[in-house]
Amino acid sequence: MVLNYIWIAFFLIAFIIAVIKLVFYGDVQVFTDIMNSTYETARTGFEISLGLTGVLSLWLGIMKIGERGGMIELFSRAVAPLFSRLFPDIPKNHPAYGSMLMNLSANMLGLDNAATPFGLKAMQELQEINLKKDRASNPMIMFLVLNASGLTLIPVTIMVYRAQMGAANPADVFIPIMIATFFATLVGLIAVCLRQRINIFCKEILGFILGMGGIIAGTVIVFKSMPQEQVNIVSSLIANIILLTIIVLFIIKAMHRKINVFESFIDGAKEGFKTAVSIIPYLIAILVGIGVFRASGAMEFLMEGMRNLVGLTGVDARWVDGLPTAIMKPLSGSGARGMMIDAMKTFGADSFTGRLSSILQGATDTTFYIVAVYYGAVNIKNSRYTVQYALLADLAGVIAAVFVAYLFFS
Which residues pair with 189 in a beta bridge? Predict the structure, then answer.
């Protein structure tokens, strides 16, 4: 399993660099910093899991209402033509269709707190039809690569952070983020389709790609016509209206079927609590590995090497200052957010680096976090080629982000 080798590499590289810093540079603090990071990140992993408990209980409770009321079945039928092509191993009108649709929709609206419970529910449903319970199935891989590509139409949180950091127009990265994240998703989708021998030229998949391109183009046109200060308010309002409308529809449909809505919610919330507990070991493991890697100074060495390498080519190296966000994003969402904020603080929110870091933050998702949490929730040990293809989508998003940053803000 690739994640196994990566996790081992975090510790071995950290140890080697720590020894070098101690022996050659006299850094007597480095081993203490590394060990302190293990305690801190282990605590952080537990706190994140604790925070997820409430959110998971809430949204899996809502999902249970939708499931018993029949709304998930309706969603499944609506996306069946496309999903039957993307996920040919899933039976027709399976409940996983609805859960995956809810997850991907929440991601596109920038509603991370809602996306994770829907995604975990989808993984549990996919595991039910998985013949090899410790090995990732083709539908699981496709689903996680699409998740890791981070397709986002409304990057609400990034615009909020830019406003807090004093950006003149917090929403000026809105369009570049949509372009970059679309390319990441497109590359991830095509790569997995080729690996799984799925025909990308069938009308359903081709229609989806062209349709998403059209939606993005339409969103660009609509938001371009608004004053910049209204974009953040309107986008956040639209996202939350859609989400609350879905909750109300779930409840109304359940009432129509004469389902006990409250009891359904409680049953789903209990499942959410169990799921939150089950992911704690996996989340702590990945966060501790990342923390050790950072505390050793390995990230610093990597960035300095990149900066020197680009400098030798004689090309504009400003984009290298945004790379910490790009490198950290697959590893840790909070870490990448910290890198983005640090870049805006150091170079300015409206600097090229500040804007590039914002675009990189929105271009992809937290690949290792997603793989660890989603596969951990259903005890998948062999992730097959999930990580490699998800990182390929991340790379496409990073390249697109750098390109559009120069195009818009050079």
Answer: none
